[in-house]
Amino acid sequence: MNATLAGVGEELIFRKILLGFMLKKNEDKYITYIIICAALFGVVHLSNLFYGAPVVDVICQVIAASMAGIMFGFVYYNSRSFILCATIHTFYDIAALMSNIGGQETSIQVIIETVIITALVSTIIAAFISKKKNVQNILLALGIILAFTIVLV
């Protein structure tokens, strides 16, 4: 239930409201706006330090959240669907939670694998429902995420 609420709330704030507002001002700068929203989305996850999470885990979460934020941003830009972003985000959070079953620490490799799998699924879904039918933008999002992955590995 927490994963569902977190995904819906975060997508409402970062994609529907913030990214939506920026895109209405100047849609030509969509890549910059997506990266800004993704970075802010990642930084917000620093709040987990206040709940006693280890620093290394929080840094990994900030990086993963930023990468996921880029993916969610491109999905939103291409589909303009808050529901789609919230749904994908929910599945992403559930996958991340499932990777931590049994209290095992989540490694950066597991986080990256979760991001990549979600990115691939999101790319396919967004390509089929995109209002803009701009597959290049969706592939660009996937390329950015894969580039982050290569840098981290």
Give a topology summary.
Blueprint: H1 2-25, H2 30-44, H3 55-79, H4 82-98, H5 108-129, H6 135-152
Helix pairs in contact: 1-2, 1-3, 1-4, 2-3, 3-4, 3-5, 3-6, 4-5, 5-6
Structure overview:
- By secondary structure, the chain is mainly α.
- The protein is built from six helices and no strands.
- It is 79% helix and 0% strand.
- Helix 1 (2-25) packs antiparallel against helix 2 (30-44), helix 2 (30-44) packs antiparallel against helix 3 (55-79) and helix 3 (55-79) packs antiparallel against helix 4 (82-98).
- The radius of gyration is 15 Å and the shape is globular.
- The protein starts with a helix and ends with a helix.
Number of helices: 6
The secondary structure category is mainly alpha
How many distinct beta strands?
0
**Largest sheet: number of strands, sense, barrel closure:** none
Mean pLDDT across all amino acids: 77
Return the string of H and E elements. Answer: HHHHHH
Fraction of residues in helices?
A: over 70%
Measured on Cα atoms, how large is the radius of gyration?
A: 15 Å
Quick rundown:
With 153 residues, this protein is mainly alpha-helical. The protein has helices at residues 2-25, 30-44, 55-79, 82-98, 108-129, 135-152. The protein is 79% helix and 0% strand.
Core attributes:
globular, single chain, 153 residues, 0% strand, mainly alpha, 6 helices
